[in-house]
Amino acid sequence: MANQHKLSGSELIVKKFGGTSVGSIERIEAVAEQIAQAFYQGEQQLIVLSAMAGETNRLLSLGAAIDSHASSRELDMLVATGEQVSIALMAMALHKRGIAAKSLIAGQISIMTDANHGRAKIERIDTSTLTALLADNVIPIVAGFQGCHQGNITTLGRGGSDTTAVALAAALSAKECQIYTDVAGVFTTDPNLETNAVKLSQINVDTMFEMARLGAKVLHPDSVDYARRFQVPLRVLSSFEPGCGTLITPQEEPLTQGRIVGMAVSHSQAIIHLQRSPQHPIVWDSLADQLAAIGIETNLLSKDESSHLGLSFTVDKLWLPKVLTMLDLMASEQVIESVQYVDNQVRLSLIGNGLLDHVDVMNKARSELSEIDVDVNLMSATAAKVAMVFCESKLNVAIRALHYAFQLNDQ
């Protein structure tokens, strides 16, 4: 019966539903009903699903119970099963509603990646299977988060289902990629931290990339970068309540030039201060490359320009032991003279466009925080952001003050 239904000539929409959206049988049924309604209204859809909420952590804990140092290949094999459960259940729920749907893992539709297990990058997608299904009026239900390399399952890292959805939207020239989450869209800052946070109706993709990269959890940075490179219109919506969400576009709004658009927070940061040896003047790029090679992302915030020997940067506290081990080795080789660190820090970033042309942003931010006794330990600026690092216990008062000071309540 379902195959007799004809599309009304609408363009393809790729829809990704996160773990909380499919976190129970009741939620899967609710999302299936939403997909069914859109189908019978003539909308062409491709669905990407995450694992059910908490499932990936459960699988990882099972693996750790066997071997805390298990191979990355076997971990990928293990955790990729979470999405397989979601897509099969969703296909069943749509079949029950008289809709032709087919669950598909990455290997079945040739989502090819590099060999970097646990953090793979998509290199190529063969769209022939998906195109044939869509032409036959079958809704593809695709496992997010996973890929394939030389017959082995790979995974794209945390938040990788967002990247799967954007990559498929790009490969199929979809009209839009819609990311359904448990929030109504992109806000000026985390509404759990600031009750006066405002939902943005639209945001530029470059600004969204900075927000995601610097701590906003609504979208994974890789997915936003993919959308930016392949000009894919993105929309963030809630699967729990109706609404238009936030549209993320390639176009820049002239009114936002030089203005703060939002704030992003990176919790649990540590500041590392080091002094380089004059006999071995390593450069920051070299150190950053060495850290990146073992999967550690750093954010350079300060240099001692007078001597060119001092560096201060932040890392996620989770990586602190590994970074200190590397730096201790460099100290033993007299490449650096001293290493100090401070933990329990937070990085708060003010994000906008053309901020270096408005140097008063830094001064205003520092002044506002000084008035409420927030001591800024590190501060840096680019054309896209002003970042400040301070004690995490001061985060709530700092967000409230800066959200008001930069008129984000009035967006």
Q: How would you explain this protein's 3D organization?
A:
This protein is an alpha/beta fold and about 400 residues long. The protein folds into two domains: about 1-250, Acetylglutamate kinase-like (Carbamate kinase); about 260-405, 2-Layer Sandwich (VC0802-like), CATH 3.30.2130. It is built from twelve helices and 18 strands. It has helices at about 25-40, 55-65, 70-80, 80-95, 130-135, 160-170, 205-215, 220-230, 285-295, 320-330, 360-370, 395-405; strands at about 10-15, 45-50, 100-105, 110-115, 120-125, 140-145, 145-150, 150-155, 175-180, 200-205, 235-240, 245-250, 260-275, 300-305, 310-315, 335-350, 380, 385-390. The strands form four sheets. An eight-stranded mixed beta sheet has the order 3-6-2-1-9-11-12-10, sandwiched between helices. The protein has a six-stranded antiparallel beta sheet with strand order 14-15-13-16-18-17. Strand 7 and strand 8 (about 150-155) form a beta hairpin. Helix 7 (about 205-215) runs antiparallel to helix 8 (about 220-230). The protein is globular, with a radius of gyration of 23 Å. Mean pLDDT is about 90; it is low at about 1-10.
